[in-house]
Amino acid sequence: MSKYVEMIRIRFLMMLAYRTNYYSGILIYSINIGAYYFLWNAIYGEKASIEGMSVLQMTSYVAVAWMARAFYFNNIDREIAQEIKEGKVAVEFIRPYHYLIMKTMQGLGEGLFRLFFFSVPGMVIVALIFPISFSASGITWLFFSTSIVFSFIINTQINLLTGILTFFFFNNDGLIRAKRVIIDLFSGLLLPISFYPGWAQQVMNFLPFQAISYIPSMIFTDGMTGSAVYNALWFQLIWAILLIVPIQFLWIIAKKQLIVQGG
Amino acid sequence: MNYVAIFVQYVSQYIKTRLTYRVDMVIEMMSDLLFQAVNLVFILVVFGHTDFLSGWSREEIIFIYGFFLVPYAIFGAFFNIWDFNERYIVKGEMDRILTRPVHSLFQIILERMELESLFGTFTGIGVMVYAGYQLGLDISWFDPILFILFVVGGVLVYGGIFVLLACISFWSDSRTSIMPMMYNIGNYGRYPVDIYNQVIRFILTWILPFAFVGVYPSAYFLGKEEWYSYAFMTPVIGIVFFTISVFVWNIGVTKYRGAGN
Amino acid sequence: MENIIQVDTLRKEFKSYSSRSGLKGAFRDLFTRNYKVIPAVKDISFTIKKGEMVGYIGENGAGKSTSIKMLTGILTPTSGSVVVNGMNPHKEREKFVRSIGVVFGQRSQLWWDIAVQESFRLLKKVYHVPDHVYESHMNHVIESLDIGPLLDKPVRKLSLGQRMRCELAAALLHNPSLLFLDEPTIGLDVLVKLKIRNFLKEINQKYQTTVLLTTHDLTDIEALCERVIMLDEGQIIYDGRLSKLKSSWGEGKQIEFQFADPKIEKLNLAVLTNDLQTEWTSGNKKNVWVANVVNDEELISEVIARVVAAHKITDIKIHEITTEEIIRNIYEEGVIQ
Fold first, then answer.
1. Pick from A196, C88, C239, C294: most CB atoms within 10 A?
2. CA gap C192, C185 in Å, rounded
3. What is the ipTM score, two decimals?
């Protein structure tokens, strides 16, 4: 276990080393949130609420969705693809750890760094500039925290899946890009799921994507309350477990293929 | 004129290589198409809840998006330099570039070409034609010429900004992921700038002039006379930005530290 | 003869950031950072004449790569001047690089996915080589390097030796008057090495091509270069003929005797040669003794004559100190005066 903790720590330190990244990241996230704030204000116009959400809730939603993204987002799909292409994965197999867990831990190290040094200060800055409502209830914060942990798990699982697929395609840049686009749209980062037409919402209920962004953001803005919260957390938990199946499956096939072809 | 010959040579090489990996090419085009669709979906969903965005109708916003896709596709085909830092600075590929008798930026543009991306120009024109038809826009004989001028201006604006961002790598020793993040900001030029406050409007016009890749030139075709002066500035801003970026690039090359050892 | 390379008090400094240790240190680094200025090349000067083949040697981090990169226009010098082929490499880069060829052993100049001849065709356009010049010159290069059968294969399918020969051909496509070779034989087998060396000698004779070669393999340098420039910690510690380096540093010879009598003692031998400058050391076997002498024919003959006359021997060998040993000695003992 301690080797995985060490992996988290190393990633954390690596992130601190890239300070240009750090400053530009805060700036760019703030600009992003700002632009969406204005866009949503324009969309609301004179209306007090759309789909049961007020402008204030909407801007809080956008802000928290982006800041939560800083935590769950990582590039391990790209990294895995890179390592497979360069033939480094074969080396990773002989190391005394599970490659996928190790990658997940690296992602977690990155995520924790951004959560503490990026999302939290970023959120304070954003809250100073734009009107944002924070929930007063401790229980909401508890649910929110649980929920973003699941966001991280599910997003990472999807990244692992996309990464492993590199074993089966010569070049999966296109796939990785497509995945990112789909997550931006269907996770609720750009638009709350409740804004979609009814049939589209029905379809998305059968997909894991809304567990990544929509659920934690809705919990945070008190847009989801009571039993809806429990249902949403169950939704996240079930997907987190379900996604293990295809990952394990593809991983085993990939390993076999690697042994046969020798990387 | 040697540069034209080199360009042609590279393009033909590129096509030969790509034809050996046809599946990749198709996947890439599909993912481009998906990317273009996402933004359209966003617009459509939003307009399911409102009729006007600061006085701009749904078709007008779609038209702007269609226009935006054209310079964006050309930019994507020739300025695929978002991993410049990784590839050329950290891995030291810049060494190789600098031992060849062609301008370094030009070589990198040629090496990193992604011509599949040009497919997006068709999507863009298609979207514009659809929206223009819905709006009943008239086309005069000089409109296609202006369209080309505006598109070239837009490409140069986009290219200039990203070349400037790439230049940071010559000075900063650390890995940065500014470029991928900047792609998001480019999107804001697709919405009417009047929805933003003064500061962001100023940024999108003069500092990161993404508004010249979308809303300003489109405003001309949509007959929004209050924006005409901005629309006609598009090629000028493009040339100015791109010239500055090449200038900074040339200085940056002298600061190149080489990789490793 | 004209100077192809003229380097005068050339210096290159790098800023190096040091990071503080631990989490707290890393956090402090976000706001302020410590840096040091480290000179990689310290005011070196030398000249190279047309047609010379010069070996450029030094340990890792001695400043070899940095100085080569300044000579090829990749890096800008901090101070001092470089004139190569009558040009300032960095200032007139695009014009300058037309006159040189570069091979980086660890970095491919060729395009990975396309056939070798397609890469050549691209480079031909890039270097603006007219058809008739290309035909006559490259046909010869392709033949000498024996790469004709490889031309229609993509680079990624070539073996290292095959690729290296193609790299060399690519670097010579525009028939440059000056060739920089950075570790051109790294990881290659002996036959390919020989082929490459012969080829380099040939073009040097045919076109008077000046060659600057950096390598870890000193046999390359022995085979090709009359002159060596040796770097250590950013300074030139030797610049002169390889043969002189050998005669002044590799002065001694070792004569190894294997005796029939296993009970022979150092004393028995020392008595024999007590009026000659000889030092006896024990060999790797009990009956093996080594006489260390200076490189002098008379002396060597005399020592052998006396020993052979006095004792029965079963084997005799004369060793010369290798260039590698010489260079190791130099680095251990410091600057050559």
1. A196
2. 8
3. 0.81
